[in-house]
Amino acid sequence: MLLQGLDRFPRCTILVVGDLMLDVFLWGDVRRISPEAPVPVVEVRRETHLLGGAANVVRNIVTLGGHARVAGIVGHDAFGAEIRELLEGARVPCSGVITVHDRPTTVKTRVIARHQQVVRVDREEVRPHDSRTTQALLRALETAAGESDAIIVSDYAKGVVSRDVMDAVRSLATRYDIPVFVDPKVTHTDFYHHVTVITPNTQEASAMSGIAVTDEASLETAGRLLLEKLQCRHVLITRGPEGMSLFEAGALPFHIPTVAQKVFDVTGAGDTVIAAMALGASAGLAMRDAAALANTAAGIVVGEVGTAAVDRGRLRAALTDGIGYRA
Predict the structure, then answer these.
(1) How far is CA 44 from each of CA 31, 51, 108, rounded to the nearest angstrom?
(2) Which UniProt keywords apply (predicted)?
């Protein structure tokens, strides 16, 4: 069943709204400690630029074989132009990417040495966008929603996702009868009422529910409370090495064990989860099967260093080889 759903991914179009970023990686070696301070000196050997944040969700949708639309904001700078170029290179229309002059594009630079992250440097300006920019974003949403099978809200709390944006997303989802998937930020918990699926990690679920998740019992309490508090249909709590747990009203929790063979880097794993789950549901899979497929996809990407994306061929191979849950 999961493989049949995977085969239908090319028929699916997902609209992603959220905080677009550029991920920069500086790869090098450490051979000495700086004489200026007790810090390592990294000799940079190469540099890579990848789509990050909500743009990495878009990237995952495309590598999994689906089609993506995007609504987001970049700065009027070289990094914003690069995000556009990378999206266009992935054949993603950029008509919904709005350029603003009052803030820079969000850029996260990670220095990697010996397969480990040494430091991360963030360049960003975090505050709500003005009404003119928000209205332009809402117009972009309205244009893209009619040709989409689902909406993903990728919220990194950088200013794109607001109460007005979430109201518009819910309205469009109702109009076109399509599901809404949210990768949340704790500070915006009150924004996420009446969505289809929300995908917090364990720490986020604890903060959003007010229940410290320390064992299976507290996990279930937190999951049930979030279902009731947010009035959403499904809560998928991602649990790192313990896999994932899906909560639905009137049903027992569905626990999915991790399939990761090795974990080098969890950067972007949540982006992979929500992209794969939205594609799976849009392809006709039951939500439990879509979650299981997403779990397998995440197990692949955490085995790589950097902002990874899983392609459909690798996911097919993992499912065919019996890695992960099968329906």
Answers:
(1) 11, 21, 17
(2) Kinase, Transferase
